[in-house]
Amino acid sequence: MDLKMDKDEGGFLKNLVLGLQHLLAMYSGDILVPILIGTALGFSATQMTYLISVDIFMCGVATLLQIKRTPLTGIGLPVVLGSAVEYVTPLQNIGHHFGIAYMYGGIIAAGIFILLISKLFANLQRFFPPVVTGSLITLIGFTLIPVAFQNIGGGDATAKNFGSPQDLILGFTTALIIIVFTIWGRGFIQQIAVLIGIVAGYVIAFFMGQIGFQSVSSAHWFQVPMPFYFSTPKFEWSSIVIMLLAALTCMIESTGVYYALAEVTKRDMKKEDMQRGYASEGLAAILGGIFNTFPYSTFSQNVAIVQLSGIKKNKPVYFSAFLLILLGLIPKVGAIATLIPNSVLGGAMLIMFGMVGAQGIKMLSQVKMTNSNLLIMAVAIGLGLGVTVQPSLLHFLPSTLQTILNNGLVVGSFSAIILNMILNPKSLKVEK
Length: 432
Known about the structure:
Blueprint: H1 12-40, H2 45-67, E1 81-83, H3 88-97, H4 100-122, H5 130-142, H6 145-152, H7 165-184, H8 188-191, H9 193-207, H10 214-218, H11 237-265, H12 271-290, E2 296-298, H13 301-309, H14 315-329, H15 331-337, H16 342-364, H17 371-389, H18 399-405, H19 408-423
Helix pairs in contact: 1-2, 1-3, 1-14, 2-12, 2-14, 3-4, 4-11, 4-12, 5-11, 5-16, 5-17, 5-19, 6-16, 7-9, 7-16, 9-16, 13-16, 14-15, 17-19
């Protein structure tokens, strides 16, 4: 398992900057989860501040669990973990109907479930040949493109000023800056093109009067995460079932991210690697329940950072993990990063998610284009994108089924797996 490293390992400052780039790439997507859930459950401003801070802290802890290889945990690839958006709707429903204690109980149950089935799930590797994983990775990128455009428009599609000229200018200017530095930048400048784009967009937004500092002045200087801060977890069977379904969704998405990173870093994935990767996410979810935050999974936008920067080693991600932990301990410093406008982050997301989709297409280009494989790609990508852009199509179904079937990645990946089993049965034979 030889992971090709860069000739120039880089010094402290270089790896710090690269780590900051990883952090900023995932920051918006991560704080979105506590904002959505905290707002839906009526958390106060003080509770929201704590929830966001401890969530950022746990992102750093979860990332360390994943990148540090141990006999039981850690896939050892350059990946950042964050709050999984697949859990948002289930957690909101559990919180509304049963209370937050059962929400955290469901998170712990999901973590235990992931730990218990990590070996079994890793043994299903033969169900993920290139035609399946390529379709899956393509879907991961392309189903997130609407999220990028929503952020470019300002973040809230229902707002009256959604898609304002200021937001569009900021979003597409950020994307353009990233493209320019990726094409014409050299060396380290090219490697941090995404960071340059985000910082430049932030500066432009400041001069356009789009930045306010109220949240920074009201945030605390130091805060230590406490177990069971909001509530001691309680357990209820229907809540647990919903969380287990969401956990399976995340494991499927993580499988695609693992394969994408393996492709980018030129590393052969083995069952033991996959098992450690799943186990890390299971342990991170258990810790999330104990510290009253959320389950954590791999962030696909960071695959694009690895691809764009050309830096395939883990050292920058270690820096990113420690920065996340530091930001979680110092909410006032962490609040500064929350000031980055959604439109600026959306411009960066547009490039990053597009790169993930392009990586999937690259994998599919290596697949033999038989009628069977073309049908698998067509149906999987078509269904996955379809339910993503038209989720209301299934509004007549029970809410639990909607939670599952409105997820384009779940629909697309299961379609690809099932069709591959039917059309390419020889690919399922276990190697002796």
